[in-house]
Amino acid sequence: MLNYHVSMATPPILFLSHGAPPLADDARWTAELARWSGSFTRPKDILIVSAHWEDAPVTVSPTQRRVPLTYDFWGFPQKYFEVTYEAPLAPELGEEVTALLGAKGVHVRHDETRGLDHGAYVPLVEMYPEADVPVLQMSMPTLEPTALTDLGRALAPLREQGTLIIGSGFTTHNLRWFDPSRGADTAPPSASSEFDHWAAETVTAGDLDSLERMLEVAPAGHEAHPRTEHWAPLYIAAGAAEAAGATQRTTAVDGFWFGLSKRSWQFD
User: Fold this and answer.
1) Among candidates 118, 120, 139, which has minimal Cα distance to 128?
2) Domain-wise residue ranges, the chain
3) pTM (whole model) above 0.85
């Protein structure tokens, strides 16, 4: 069992590998997520940045009216399109995000039509199944590492107000490795394993420069992330953690799922 660093004063900052909709059928992973969320301070609200929402300028999800989830996937059984997650809206958090980013010259657009996508609700269903914590999702306006790190730094004050900041991606994400016929526990490709090892060491060391230069310095970086959208939410989490003075960097979930690294980190 992994050891969690428990903060009693403020919630941590997280980067999690969110999984596809069938994550709900994986008893081990769902238990890991539930145990993780129960190990730290219950947040006032949640700001989540998902790999599946790229939109410029920075855009936030509805704060004035409830809308259906965004089922941004295809080819899955109907039951996955019937999942609901009716978390409370977070209008105050929307205002705080707008103010914090506005102070840095970043315009924030409010989209009152786009519900939480699967990068947000799939893990939250397991972590907060009662859907009783207000949630706001924020888009990534770019995949450029330093710009996202700076966004994270700007959002860091939210932590002291009780907000749980989550970057939701996947530590390795090459869907050519995904073969359902082989089972979730199949041995990962060597490239996935090598990248996972590098990521674990680099995050633990707090080497933000190397994280930002992942494609240049990581073993199998281009194979692990043919496109970097599932790595990019880590920049926001790591930037927020740095600015918030979080010096504890702990692996909260590890292992592989259909060859993909589900490694997830907690910053305290």
Assistant:
1) 120
2) 13-267
3) yes
CA distances from 90 to 53, 64, 100 (A): 18, 9, 15
The dihedral region occupied by 190, where left means phi > 0, alpha psi between -120 and 50, and beta the remainder, is alpha
* Distances from the Cα of 32 to the Cα of 18, 153, 167, angstroms: 12, 28, 17
Dihedral sign of CA atoms 187, 188, 190, 194 in order = negative
29 burial level (CB within 10 Å; 0-12, 13-18, 19+): buried
Nearest-CA neighbor of 7 among 228, 159, 124, 187?
A: 159
Q: How many residues does the chain have?
A: 268
Are the C-beta atoms of 194 and 220 separated by less than 8 Å? yes
Say yes or no to pLDDT of 7 above 50.
Answer: no
User: In this structure, how many other beta carbons lie within 10 angstroms of the beta carbon of residue 239?
Assistant: 28
Please tell me the distance from the alpha carbon of residue 38 to that of residue 30, in angstroms, as a whole number.
12
- Give the integer Cα–Cα distance in Å for 161 and 145: 26
Percent of residues, the chain, with pLDDT higher than 90: 91
Contact predicate 244/160, CB 8 Å: yes
Neighbour tally for 62: CB within 10 Å: 20
C-alpha–C-alpha distance, residues 145 and 214, integer Å:
9
pLDDT of residue 8: 44
What whole-number distance in Å separates Cα of residue 246 and Cα of residue 48? 18
99-131 pLDDT, tens digit per residue, is: 999 999 999 999 999 999 999 999 999 999 999
Given pLDDT bands bounded at 50, 70 and 90, which one contains residue 4? very low
The CATH homologous superfamily to which domain 13-267 belongs is LigB-like (3.40.830.10)
